[in-house]
What we know:
two-stranded parallel ribbon; alpha/beta; single chain; oxidoreductase; 9 strands; Sc_DH/Rdtase_CS; seven-stranded parallel sheet; Rossmann fold
Amino acid sequence: MASSLNGKVALITGAASGIGRATAVKLSKLGCALALTDVVEAGLSETAELCYTEKVIVAQLDVSNAEQCDLVVKETVEYFKRLDHVFNCAGINPTAYPILELPEGYFDKLVAVNLKGTYNVTRSTLSHLKEHADCSFVNVSSILGQRPSKEMAAYCATKYAIIGFSKSMALELGPKGIRVNIVAPGFIDTPTNASVKAGPEAVERSAQSVSLGRLGQAEEVANAVAFLMGDEAKYINGSVVEINGGLAY
C-alpha cells in the first residue's frame, strides 16, 4: 500500500543530526520531499545524502530569528510549490543549573530557540498549509515537559510551554483540518543527549531508569513523527505521544 505521505512536502528544523536527521530519512522513505534546516549548516548536506529522494533542499536557519524563518519558508514554497507538514525539532538540550546559578543568557537562549523558535516557524509556515488537505504540525517537547526535574527549571519551562502552545494550536487549527501533535522523547541516543555526552556510566544510569533497559534510538522517534503526519493518525489532534521506553515517573 502506498504511503499517504508520498508526494507531500515536509519542512524539518534541527535536521543536521539526531531526531531531525532520522525523521528526514524516515519521511524520505515514505516519499516526502524535504526542506531541511538547522542552525548548524555542516550536517545538513550529510542528512540530505542519507535521504531516499533527490527532492531535498537545505538551508541554514536560526529559528529564533523570525526574518530568517520567513525567508526560508518562502524559498521552500517557491521551490516545491506547496508545503504539507512541519516538524518543529530544533532545540537546545538542557544543562543543569540551580535556580540561583542559572545564567540569564542561558535562560533567554532556551526560550528564544525552544519556545519562540517553534512559534516563529509556525507563524511563517501556517499560511502555506492548505486547509482540509491532511496537513499537520508535529512539535517536539520532552519528558521534562510533563514532569519536573530539579536544576532543570528553564528547560522544563520551555518544554511545558511547547505542550500548552501546541494544544492551543490544535484547538485553533482543528476546524481548518490542520492537525497539531507533540512528541515527548525520553532518553534518546543522540549526539546532544546529556548522558551520551557525559559518557558510558551516565548512559547506563539513564538506561537503568527505563523499563526497557536502554536508551531510545532517534529512528524510534522518527517513526512516531511519521505516524502522526500520516493518514493513520487523521483523528489524532492535540495529543502528546510519549516515547520513553517505559520511564519510571
